[in-house]
Design a protein that fits this description.
Layout: H1 2-21, E1 41-43, H2 45-53, H3 57-70, E2 78-84, E3 88-93, H4 95-102, E4 115-119, H5 131-149, E5 153-157, H6 165-177, H7 182-194, H8 199-214, H9 219-238, H10 242-264, E6 271-272, H11 275-280, H12 283-294, E7 298-299, E8 309-311, E9 328-331, H13 339-350, E10 359-365, E11 370-375, E12 390-396, H14 400-412, H15 416-420, E13 422-427, E14 430-432, H16 434-439, H17 446-450, E15 454-455, H18 466-484, H19 490-510, E16 518-520, H20 522-525, H21 533-549, H22 554-561, H23 566-573, H24 579-588, H25 591-601, H26 605-624, H27 633-656
Helix pairs in contact: 2-3, 4-24, 6-8, 6-9, 6-10, 7-10, 9-10, 12-13, 13-14, 18-19, 21-26, 21-27, 22-27, 24-26, 24-27, 25-26, 26-27
The structure holds one RNA strand.
Length: 665
RNA sequence: GGGCGAGUAGCUCAAUCGGAUAGAGCACCGGCCUUCUAAGCCGGGGGUUGUGGGUUCGAUUCCCGCCUCGCCUACCA
C-alpha cells in the first residue's frame, strides 16, 4: 500500500514541478515523518529547489501544496497536504482508502525480470559447519526468498572446493596421522554412519590435529610435512589416485552432512558446482585464452613477478614502461593457476560467457525438488545452470579483494554489464566473546581475554559447531515449551520447540546488518525475549488464539470487513485515541516497500526489523483493545480485521525470513 | 606502507539519497496476571554520535587531519 501511494505521490509531484516550475526532477526524495501527527509521507524537495528557484523553501512548499490541493482528485488515497517546519511538505493519507488498499494484497511488487544466481554457504568440505557458516547460509537463503518474492527466477548454488588445501589437510590426517588406507577410510565412513556418528565432527578434530602437527617437530620435520601437504594437494588436483579417492570420499560425505545441517534450517540448494570439475573440464584453459586475447592478463618479464601472468588491480595506475609489483598474479612462474584465476573462469561460466558447461548428476533429493552436482560426464537429461543476468555471491568481507579482482577481470574483458550485475554480498564474521570461549572450555590468551571478540578458526578447531548450537537451542526451547504446553503430547511439543529454536537462530543472524561483526554468546542466542524471533512468533500465536476463542477465521472476518462503510472505517481510524490502530495498519501496508528496500540494498535486516516492529505494534494494540468483548458488532469486525491483517503480514514476513509460525507456544 | 570496514546509552545494535525531537533490545529501578497466553504490557533513569576542522538552510551520515580497533594486502587456497 505505502509503496503504491508513494509512487502516486512522486508521479504527481513530478507533474506539478513540470507544470509550475518547468523542472524535470528524476527522483523525488520521500521519507517518513518522525511521527503520525506530521502525516505519513513527507518530502524535503522544497529545500533542494530553493537555490535553483531563488526562493525561500517555505514559499516553494506552499506553492506545491496549493497545486496538489487544487487537484486532490488526481491523488486517490490522500486526504490533505501541509507545509511544516522550514519547508517540509507533509502528506496525510485518507485512512479509510488506505486500509482498503492493504486488505486485498500486500507484498506484491511489479514483477521483476531476470535470471538471478545466488551463491551461498560454500563451506570447505573438510569439517563440520560452524556458526559463521550459518550466518552465510541464513543471509543467502533469506535473500533468495526476497528475490523470489519480487518475481525473479533464482537458482541457488553452493560452491564446493573439494580439491583445495583444507580438504588436503584432512586427507593428510587420514593418511599420515591415522595411517589409514582407502579401504579403511571407506570402512570408517560406513561405520560412523551406521553408529549415528557424524563424519564432519570426526574431521573437525582431525583437521585441527593435522594443522597442529604441521607446526610441530624439528625444522626438518616441519619442512617435510609442508612438502607432504603440497604433494597431497597436487595428487588431489590431478585425480585418479588413492589420495584423490580419499579426498572425494571424505569431501562428499562431509558435503552431505552440510546439506543435512542446512536443511534443519529450511535451507535448500539447486546446484553444487565443484572445483574438481572446474579443473578437469579445463574451464581455466578456456578462460586463459580469453584473458590473454583481451589484454587483461599480461606476461611480466621484470620485477618480483617476473615470469608470471598478472593483471592490474582495480584502481591501479599503470605507468608506461614501469613494472607494477602490486599486480595480481594469476598464473605463477611455474605455470600453475591461482585461486583467482579459477574463480574468473567460474564466473565467466556463471554469466554464460565461457563457452563450456559442467556435466550434471543428481545428488540430494528435497521434498519438492532435486539438488544437482557437477560431474565430468553427467546424466544425459538435466537442467541447465549458469547463464545468469545477475549474480550475488554471499562471501565474507575478508574476501572482498579477490572478489574485486574477478569483477575487474570481467570489466577488463569488456563485460561491463555483467560486472555491474555482479554483487559481492559481503558480511562480517561471527566471532566468539571471550566469555563464550571460556564457557566452551578453550584456553585463551591474556591478550584475547581483553578483546570484545575472538575470531573462530576451523584450523584450530576453535568455534561452535552449527549442529551443536541447533541442538542446544532446541533443548532450551523444549524445556520452556514443556513447562507451558502441558496439554500437548511430546511430538507436538518437540515440533513447537524446533520451530521456536530455528526461528530464534535465524532471527538472531538476520537482525544485525551485514557489515557488523556478531560477537556470539550463548546468553544472547538463547534469549527469547525482546527483539527476537520468538517474540514475533508469540504475537502470531496470540492472534490465532483470538480467532480460535472467537470461533471465527480471518477469511470470514475480512469478508465482513468488506461490508463496512468507509465513513465508519474513517471514524475507527481517526484521532489520537485510534492512532495505535492506524499505526498498525500503516506498518502492515509496508511489506512491498520493505522488500524493495531489502533488494535494493542487499540487506535482509530491514525485513527482520519490519517484522519485529509489526509484532511490537500488535502487542501494543492487543493490550489496549480487548477484541472479543467489544460490544459494537461493526467495531468488533473492524478490530478482528485489524488482527487478521496483522496475522497475515506477520506470517508473511516471517515466511520470507523462513521462520515458521507455531500454533501454540 | 597501501586498501576496505568500524567507533552512537553500562552492553549489543538501528537510524532510508544529507532531513524534523538520534531510536530499539538487553541490563537496572518501579508498576501490571479472576480478562483474547506475562516468551507480554506500561513507566523511569540513562547520549558532547572517538576527536579537531570544513562544506550548507540542515551533518551520526559528505570532505580533510588525528586517535583507536578489526580485516585484507603471499608466485596459499
Amino acid at each position: 500500500m505505502v509503496l503504491e501511494l508513494e509512487k502516486r505521490l512522486s508521479d504527481r509531484l513530478r507533474a506539478v514541478l513540470k507544470n509550475r516550475f518547468e523542472l524535470d526532477i528524476g527522483s523525488i526524495p520521500l521519507e517518513t515523518p518522525p511521527d503520525l501527527g506530521l502525516g505519513e509521507i513527507a518530502t524535503p524537495i522544497a529545500f533542494e529547489l530553493a537555490r535553483k528557484l531563488r526562493k525561500a523553501p517555505k514559499i516553494i512548499a506552499q506553492e506545491i501544496v496549493a497545486a496538489l490541493l487544487a487537484d486532490l482528485g488526481l491523488l486517490p488515497g490522500f486526504a490533505k497536504f501541509e507545509v511544516a517546519g522550514a519547508g517540509y511538505i507533509n502528506a496525510y493519507l485518507d485512512r479509510a482508502e488506505a486500509v482498503q488498499l492493504v486488505v486485498p494484497a500486500e507484498g506484491r511488487l511489479p514483477s521483476a525480470q531476470g535470471h538471478v544466481l545466488v551463491e551461498h554457504t560454500s563451506i570447505n568440505p573438510n569439517k563440520a559447519a560452524h556458526i559463521g557458516h550459518l550466518r552465510n547460509a541464513i543471509l543467502g537463503d533469506t535473500f533468495v526468498r526476497l528475490l523470489r518474492a519480487a518475481g525473479y527466477k533464482v537458482d541457488v548454488q553452493n560452491y564446493i572446493d573439494n580439491t583445495g588445501v583444507q580438504v588436503a589437510d584432512v586427507v593428510v590426517g587420514f593418511l599420515h596421522l591415522e595411517k589409514k588406507t582407502v579401504a579403511e577410510v571407506h570402512a570408517l565412513v560406513t561405520e560412523l554412519a551406521s553408529n549415528g556418528q557424524l563424519i564432519d565432527y570426526y574431521c573437525w578434530d582431525l583437521y585441527a590435529r593435522t594443522s597442529q602437527w604441521y607446526g610441530e617437530g624439528t625444522d626438518e620435520e616441519k619442512t617435510a610435512r609442508k612438502q607432504l601437504r603440497l604433494d597431497t594437494l597436487h595428487l588431489i588436483e590431478r585425480g585418479g589416485n588413492d589420495t584423490a579417492e580419499i579426498a572425494d570420499l571424505i569431501s562428499t560425505a562431509v558435503l552431505r552432512r552440510h546439506l543435512e545441517t542446512m536443511l534443519r534450517l529450511g535451507i535448500e540448494y539447486d546446484f553444487l558446482p565443484r572445483e574438481s570439475e572446474i579443473l578437469h573440464l579445463k574451464f581455466w584453459e578456456a578462460a586463459f585464452e580469453k584473458l590473454k586475447q583481451s589484454g587483461v592478463l599480461y606476461f611480466e618479464d621484470e620485477g618480483k613477478n617476473k615470469g608470471c601472468w598478472v593483471m592490474n588491480r582495480p584502481g591501479a595506475e599503470t605507468k608506461e614502461n614501469e613494472t607494477d609489483d602490486d599486480a595480481k598474479v594469476i598464473v605463477r612462474s611455474n605455470g600453475t593457476v591461482t585461486y583467482v584465476g579459477k574463480d574468473i573462469a567460474y564466473h565467466l561460466w556463471k554469466f554464460g560467457l565461457l563457452g563450456k558447461d559442467f556435466g550434471y548428476k543428481r545428488f540430494f533429493t528435497y521434498p519438492d525438488h532435486e539438488c544437482w552436482i557437477s560431474a565430468e560426464s553427467g546424466e544425459p537429461s538435466h537442467p541447465h545452470f549458469g547463464g545468469a543476468t545477475a549474480i550475488y555471491n554471499v562471501i565474507d568481507a575478508r574476501q572482498s579483494d579477490p572478489q574485486a579482482n574477478v569483477i575487474q577481470a570481467l570489466r577488463g574483458m569488456g563485460y561491463t554489464d555483467q560486472a555491474d550485475h555482479y554483487t559481492h554480498f559481503s558480511y562480517e564474521m561471527v566471532a566468539l566473546t571471550p566469555r563464550c570461549a571460556v564457557e566452551l572450555g578453550y584456553e585463551i590468551s591474556e591478550v584475547d581475554k581483553q578483546k570484545s571478540y575472538i575470531e573462530v578458526s576451523g584450523r584450530k578447531g576453535f568455534g561452535v559447531k552449527a549442529d551443536d548450537l541447533i541442538d542446544k537451542l532446541i533443548a532450551a526451547t523444549r524445556a520452556e515449551v514443556d513447562s507451558r504446553q502441558t496439554s500437548h503430547d511430546a511430538a507436538v511439543r518437540q515440533k513447537i520447540a524446533e520451530q521456536i529454536a530455528i526461528g530464534a537462530l535465524r532471527y538472531f543472524m538476520l537482525k544485525v546488518t551485514r557489515n557488523s561483526v556478531i560477537a556470539f554468546d550463548f546468553k544472547d542466542a538463547l534469549s527469547f525475549e525482546g527483539e527476537t524471533g520468538p517474540y514475533i512468533q508469540y504475537a502470531v500465536v496470540r492472534i490465532r488464539n483470538i480467532f480460535r476463542k472467537g470461533n471465527t477465521t480471518p477469511d470470514a472476518v475480512l469478508a465482513d470487513f468488506a461490508g463496512l462503510p468507509a465513513a465508519s472505517l474513517g471514524a475507527y481510524l481517526a484521532g489520537e485515541a485510534n492512532q495505535d490502530i492506524w499505526s498498525l495498519w500503516l506498518r502492515a501496508g509496508r511489506r512491498s516497500q520493505v522488500i524493495e528496500q531489502c533488494i535494493a540494498t542487499s540487506e535482509p535486516a530491514y525485513l527482520a526489523k519490519h517484522a519485529f516492529q509489526l509484532a511490537q505494534e500488535f502487542a501494543n494494540f492487543y493490550h489496549r483493545h480487548h477484541i472479543l468483548t467489544e460490544v459494537d458488532p461493526a467495531r468488533k469486525t473492524f478490530l478482528l480485521s485489524t488482527a487478521a491483517i496483522a496475522l497475515r503480514e506477520l506470517v508473511g514476513s516471517l515466511a520470507l525470513l523462513d521462520i515458521e509460525s507455531p500454533e501454540a507456544m
